[in-house]
Amino acid sequence: MLMGLPPFWAETHSEMYGRVLDAPLEFPEDMDPVTSDFIAGLLRRDPAERLGTGVDGPITIRSHPYFDSLQWTDVYYRRIKPPYVPNLKSETDFSHFDKDFLAMTPRLSPSTMQQTQSATMDPSLLDLAFQGYSYTNTDSNYMEDAFPSPSATTSDLQHSSIYYYEDDDYGSVEAATSDDRHNDSGVTTSSSGGGGLEPGSNASHVYGN
């Protein structure tokens, strides 16, 4: 977005894929060194060395000098005004789009075509992809409850259906309920540490047969 081209751009897709695997990462001479360092960190080929990897990954990204002028609290609560807000005359105002793109012939992408086919498919056939699984989440408010609004208090977060904690045994972040209870899958979860499945629970309820 900064330069108008992907970092490993090439004339053909196959050449570009080859450059992603083997070519050195190059930046324009006039690019700010802090910006180039940030991008280079995100594009390291070894995932273990990539900026943002590990338990403290989000912190290392937010603390990079590239974001020194940014107040993350303001970002979270959407207090920052965008540097440019287009003046739209209507919802179908395309005056801010590049004319070259507007001149292109629209084509359905594979994912869009699949969605169109799914919409006309017998609903019973869609369930075939989940054969062998015994659990279906039917709670339409599940995602809304899992991610409360920015104004939610700490107490609200702890009483939502999902919050995150650090597992001391495995050094990973897992989903857990705010109190010991059985969820719809029949698996007991606990906020007292350890996470995962408790003895006596049936793993096939979660992972399938």
TrEMBL record:
InterPro entries: AGC-kinase_C, Kinase-like_dom_sf, Pkinase_C. Gene3D superfamilies: Phosphorylase Kinase, domain 1 (3.30.200.20), Transferase(Phosphotransferase) domain 1 (1.10.510.10). Residues 174-209 are annotated as: Disordered. Residues 68-145 form the AGC-kinase C-terminal domain. It comes from the Eukaryota. SUPFAM superfamilies: Protein kinase-like (PK-like). One of its GO terms (molecular function) is protein serine/threonine kinase activity. The keyword Transferase applies. PROSITE patterns: AGC_KINASE_CTER. Keywords: ATP-binding, Kinase, Nucleotide-binding, Serine/threonine-protein kinase, Transferase. Residues 199-209 have a biased composition (Low complexity). Pfam families: Pkinase_C. This is AGC-kinase C-terminal domain-containing protein. The gene is ABSGL_14323.1 scaffold 14385.
